[in-house]
Amino acid sequence: MNIQTIMVIGAGQMGSGIAQVAAASGFHVLLHDTTPEFLNRGMQAINKQLSRNVEKGKLTPESMAEIVSRIRPTEFVEHAEQADFVIEAISENMALKALLFHRLDSLCPPRTILATNTSSLPISEIAAVTGRPEKIIGMHFMNPVPVMPLVEVIRGLETSQEVFEVVYGLSQRMGKTPVEVNDFPGFVSNRILMPMINEAIFTVYEGVASIESVDKVMKFGMNHPMGPLELADFIGLDTCLSIMEILYDGFKDSKYRPCPLLRKYVKAGRLGRKSGQGFYTYQ
Ligand code: CAA
């Protein structure tokens, strides 16, 4: 399958990162979001990241201009019909995703693969709202997308072998390291990462150690680049809570019970870096 044009739906942190990496890998990218403000914010983030690489001498200004010129922002989801491959990176809300995939299914030619960057929602459930479940697949990038090598390639119940191989190869063409995963709550990354973060929050909640101490133990004892609480702020505490809820609900096992302190922070609007306050305070 000859993929030249990729449509990325959602120009937030993940979507703009995916668009940047796809364009830097030579693909033409249609970056879609619903308002010019969201699109501008996404394009600004891409420009900022690429400019940093130019300043560091890792990219020439000409290459940067080429990469940016390969990204076409659009407010029209209808442009999906021009894409060879679509990847969705909107908010983690099943009802919104279902609406979008239903729409994409009616807009795109039958050959188009529709991927989702969901971090934990069931691929098979998203596939079920379309008439092409064999062409629906998970392609889960990590944050920050330009830096982290992993892509979880998640097979839904009906995903075809051919589609799996296309997406596995596409991840490699984007310079990433794909890993095959099946469709179960949290896949692999979040099934392991989130209980660790949740446990770190319980450790603070129970007064075992301070926020800083918990992070220091994992950074200096386990060589993690960020402590779990710093990482939770980076990911977003609302996202952490929503993934814990999906694990708890999906497995019905008390080991996935979200820490009450995590719930309390989210209810108070302390969402981590994006809100300026989480376990730490940000300017
Ligand atoms: N976007 C793009 N590039 C970034 C970046 C960002 N937001 N933040 C940092 N970088 C780049 C820097 O430009 C720098 O690049 P060079 O090596 O080319 O100079 C490099 O990353 C290292 O950055 P820094 O030296 O500034 O800082 P650092 O060494 O502390 O690294 C980090 C920053 C890469 C974010 C590192 O702290 C890290 O790996 N943290 C853990 C990230 C992680 O675990 N991500 C997964 C989250 S879970 C997820 O995404 C799944 C989910 O579904 C929730």
Automatic annotation (TrEMBL):
3-hydroxyacyl-CoA dehydrogenase C-terminal domain residues: 186-282
Record PROSITE patterns: 3HCDH
MF GO annotations: 3-hydroxybutyryl-CoA dehydrogenase activity
Enzyme category, top tier: oxidoreductase
Keywords, sorted A to Z: Oxidoreductase
EC number: 1.1.1.157
Domain of life: Bacteria
Keyword hit for Oxidoreductase: yes
Residue ranges of the TM segments: none
Signal peptide: none
Pathway terms, separated by semicolons: Lipid metabolism; butanoate metabolism
Alphabetical list of Pfam families matching this protein: 3HCDH (PF00725), 3HCDH_N (PF02737)
The 3-hydroxyacyl-CoA dehydrogenase NAD binding domain, residue ranges: 6-183
Family (UniProt): Belongs to the 3-hydroxyacyl-CoA dehydrogenase family.
PANTHER family per record: 3-HYDROXYACYL-COA DEHYDROGENASE FAMILY PROTEIN, 3-HYDROXYBUTYRYL-COA DEHYDROGENASE
Protein name: 3-hydroxybutyryl-CoA dehydrogenase
